[in-house]
Design goal:
Blueprint: E1 10-14, H1 23-33, E2 37-40, H2 71-81, E3 86-93, H3 99-112, E4 117-122, H4 127-133, H5 140-154, E5 160-163, E6 168-172, E7 186-188, H6 193-202, E8 205-208, H7 213-229, E9 238-242, H8 249-258, E10 262-265, H9 285-293, H10 296-299
Parallel strand pairs: 1-2, 1-10, 2-3, 3-4, 4-7, 7-8, 8-9, 9-10
Antiparallel strand pairs: 5-6
Length: about 300
């Protein structure tokens, strides 16, 4: 509870703006301050062509040559430097990936971290990434759904096979399975009708951004309706908002009141400015001052 008696959402830190050589220190600082989780995103390429017209947010927060790390590799590095903070991807562009290699990376990271992984995933919005990796843009939705089925099946540790137009996986047994059973929590992004239905039914939570509290309220209402239609409980369904700036405590109270379970915040960003670029800062004082602003030490 806050000093005003109102609840805050769980607070995660968006580490994308942090320099590669400062990631471990920033994650340790976030853990020491009492933040619940740290998160990294994924882009495979930063094309020279202008892709900003396709970006679903206000302004793309990377440019050609931005230092974007592989999130699962970087979270493995962070896992070795921390002990309790949860480690999340916000988000993996899952249809760009190979399901078997991704299953191996996820299971390995969940073991190395002692079962702290949160898998945020989505389709991605940048068509040149699909072209560069030879993936079909039109079938990305079905590819995501099939990859989730494959990951879930592999993680049972039982004999498993999968055959479709996109994947042909022979009978096999996968191991080691993740520490978390039946799988690390999966949070799916996207705000279109199909994406929200997919997240509600196939995932353990939804992850994404929203332009306003009323927008997130509408998203939550839609997710709840899909969960109820599928006879699935909503009480244990996580809704995580990525905030590309430093929110006020009142902003966080409003998000929690709207039904947001987790806010993944960017303490280095200004509400009225552009989102910070990747890999540019090692300023840990922003973490400390934000924790103080929201009374995080009083939440513990």
């Amino acid at each position: 509870m806050s000093e005003h008696g109102r609840r805050l959402p769980k607070l995660g830190i968006n580490l994308v703006p942090v320099r590669v050589d400062a990631l471990a220190a920033a994650a340790r600082c976030a853990e020491d301050l009492g933040f619940e989780s740290v998160w990294l995103g994924e882009h495979v390429i930063t094309p020279l062509e202008d892709v900003t017209t396709d970006y679903p947010g206000r302004k793309s927060n990377f440019e050609p040559g931005s230092p974007l790390v592989d999130p699962l590799v970087a979270l493995g590095h962070i896992a070795a430097a921390t002990s309790i903070v949860r480690l999340g991807t916000a988000v993996l562009c899952l249809p760009l990936r190979d399901p078997l290699l991704t299953a191996r990376e996820i299971a390995t990271l969940d073991h190395l971290s002692g079962g702290r992984l949160e898998v945020g995933a989505a389709l991605g919005w940048m068509r040149p990434e699909y072209q560069a990796l030879g993936r079909d843009w039109a079938s990305r939705g079905s590819r995501l759904e099939e990859m989730l089925a494959i990951l879930t099946g592999l993680f049972t540790g039982e004999p498993f096979e999968f055959h479709s137009a996109q994947f042909d996986i022979p009978p096999m047994v996968f191991g080691p399975c993740p520490v978390q059973s039946p799988r690390p929590p999966v949070h799916l992004g996207g705000q279109g009708p199909r994406a929200l239905a997919r997240s509600a039914v196939l995932a353990d939570g939804w992850i994404g951004g929203a332009k306003s509290v009323s927008d997130i309220g509408s998203i939550i209402d839609t997710l709840r309706a899909h969960r109820h239609a599928a006879d699935l409980a909503f009480d244990d369904f996580d809704v995580s908002i990525i905030v590309l700036h430093r929110p006020s405590i009142d902003d966080l109270h409003e998000l929690r009141a709207a039904g947001v379970r987790r806010a993944i915040v960017t303490p280095w960003g200004l509400a009225d400015g552009d989102p910070p670029m990747p890999g540019q800062t090692d300023d840990l004082s922003a973490l400390r001052s934000f924790a103080e602003d929201v009374g995080l030490d009083r939440q513990r």
